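Retro notes (design track)

What went well: tokenization of the new backbones is finally stable.
What didn't: we kept losing track of which sequence belonged to which structure.
Fix going forward: every design gets posted as structure first, then sequence, in one message. First example under the new rule, 109 residues:
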């Protein structure tokens, strides 16, 4: 087994730009996400059918220039983005987005 657990990892710093979302994690790693990739991975009930986990979001319905306009930290485990297409319902648990787009060691290496 080589599965890394991110259960205790929290977002320390979140920076939103026009096209990306940069997150610095509490374990010293950082990740850069394309805003649109993040939006396409939304796991809310409007984007993923709950009982089957089937993705029902049509990527064509998401603007190419989508951006995260703001974010809210949810509890101490997740982040919620306010998207420029007025989609606010997605909650992204930290461990889920770390697994989706693994972080990179910062500096050096
Ligand atoms: Zn959604």
């Amino acid at each position: 087994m080589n599965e890394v657990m991110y259960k205790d990892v929290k977002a320390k710093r979140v920076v939103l730009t026009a096209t990306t979302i940069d997150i610095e994690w509490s374990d010293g790693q950082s990740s850069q996400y394309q805003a649109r990739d993040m939006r396409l991975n939304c796991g809310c009930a409007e984007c993923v059918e709950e009982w089957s986990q089937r993705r029902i979001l049509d990527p064509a319905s998401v603007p190419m220039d989508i951006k995260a306009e703001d974010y809210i930290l949810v509890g101490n485990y997740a982040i919620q983005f306010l998207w420029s297409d007025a989609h606010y319902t997605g909650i992204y648990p930290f461990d889920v987005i770390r697994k989706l787009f693994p972080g990179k060691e910062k500096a050096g290496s």
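Added context from the reviewer: The chain has two helices and seven strands.
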